[in-house]
Amino acid sequence: MRDSAPGRDGDVVLGDDFVAPDNVVDEEVRARRARRGFLSLRESPLTRKIITFNLIALNVLVAGILYLNSSRDGMAIQRANSLVGEAELVADVFEAQLPIGAPVNLITGDGVDVAQTLEGLDIQQGAEVFVFDTDGALAGHVVGVEVRSSDAEDTQPTVLTDALTTLWGWMSKPFGVGALTAQPSVEDMARDKVAAALTGGTQVTSGEVSGGTIFSVVSPIEHDGQAIGVVALVSASGEIDQLVMAERERVLQMFIIATLVSIGLSLILASTIAHPLADLAAAAEIGGARNRGKNGNGRIRIPDLTARPDEIGRLSGALRGMVGALYNRIDGNEQFAADVAHEIKNPLASLRSAVGTMRVAKREDQREKLLNVIEHDVRRLDRLVSDISNASRLDSELVKEEEVPFDLLTMLRNLGQYLGEEAQGKGIDFITDFPEKPIVINGLEARLAQVFVNLISNAISFCEDGDAIRIWARRRENRVLVVVEDTGPGIPDQALTKIFQRFYSQRDASDFGNNSGLGLAISKQIVEAHGGVVWAENIRPTDADITSDPLGARFVVGLPV
Description:
disordered N terminus, five-stranded mixed sheet, 12 strands, rod-shaped
């Protein structure tokens, strides 16, 4: 009965139900995954980048902690304040022993025994106490031997720090960095501040000696309001350096632990990112090689990662959909080529038979009849080739053309006015029923006009004198329905499922060859390209009796608004 439309059944969807002709691609992907292993540093540039970038950030953080923080300055200030208190306390011990109103000489021991007083002090291990008179002469000296609990806690192995220090010294040696220079003695450093302490009070200074950094605090000893000497308390050499090294050691230990954790987390992250991407790339590469004929037959099987709620899952779904659409297109092209060959073969066979018969035909009426057959088949071939050409270019043209908004009702009214004259010329009533308010949609106006021209012309071709054709449109929320109805013979029930197939036609023999069977195929293809649907049904006197003879046919086109 009716011309056919596109929409062949059996769309291929890649998923759990999709089975390729063979499993070679899957086996090759699994083999690559097995060779890659868990670490996969050699075969995965992305994994190396993830680990490298994580370690760079971690190293920058540790470098900032070690060299840009104020911990050393804070320790130095704290230790200096502690030494000031201790030095002033030692000076108070000497002042408490001085006789009131009697002369005092620290060098000779008049008024106070400097050596005995120094021996009675509890001095931290490594620290030194010097007593100078006003002329800078040394009156007494003692080196602390007491080991305090805090010192024992701070004394710990600094293997990492020592190794880095040694490495830095080895690297800087060729450039002369850190070359040793002559350092003053601890006693000389303390004596240099004697004069300043006698006039200005307690003095704090720091310096470098062969053992490291030291702090020196010089505090005056007063008797009857006059300074008679000074007490110089010098910290243990390298004490601050040792504290800083201990802190750095703890930081470096945490750095090693953090590095191992970062590498482990990077590998886990890489296994969830790089490995699936590598599987997708491997499947595509293997499929590409197979399509080039390098590895035999078989379709590409993209790994199904759509369960992942991230971009990789989206990529897998998109690739699977793309490959599925590609194979659908390939299958469609193959089927289309087979259908074209079949449709062209029939008129060619008829032509061959007619031409062969003409060679032996003697009577003029026989030759005239054969010429009519040849003319009919040539016309049929011409129509068929034209429709095939239009159908084959339709996909590419639909992609290239740009959709624009237009009033669907204005287009339908213009078509109704033009085609209505043709219908009335055959004695067919032509009725239109459109709402007054415009219905604006986005699409290709010329292509959609082609759809409705096909539907209306198809209805006209099946109607006779006294029949009627009605076209009406209604808007339903986000869609618009356009219906073409006629009172013709209707559509055979067995043809309702075939009418949207290519080259399907059940016209009378007198009309055979005037239709290629692609009109409705092209119409459906255009409607679906616009995100719409089209279907056909019979008009029956009652829905309760589906076996009753149809009163006509109805074609419905639904388009998004």
